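User: Here's a chain of 117 residues. Predict its fold as tokens.
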Amino acid sequence: VQLQAFGGGSVQAGGSLRLSCVPSGNTLSIKSMGWYRQASGSQRELVAGINKSTTRLAKSVVGRFTISRDDAESPVYLQMNSLKPEDTGVYYCAANPSVRLDPTAYWGHGTLVTVSS
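Assistant: Prediction complete.
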């Protein structure tokens, strides 16, 4: 499985961005996908995860971010609204062959999100 992420960029606080992650290869093996982020000097943290039946969001993004995916072969999206400077970081897409909502088996390259105040 290969994952390719798109959509990072620079935005002012309060703005929006939409990240996309396109899977390829053995996509039917993917049971969950998610997004992590890593701020400079910090550990990578889970932002959002999704499987066939449910989603999971970090407390810091509830009400602002939405994760979605149409079906087993579709990209996963992260809609980010009301962005804050603390959302700045490199965002990584991940996927798993199990339904766990913190996928770690496959990783894409990161995409940088910069939110200015």
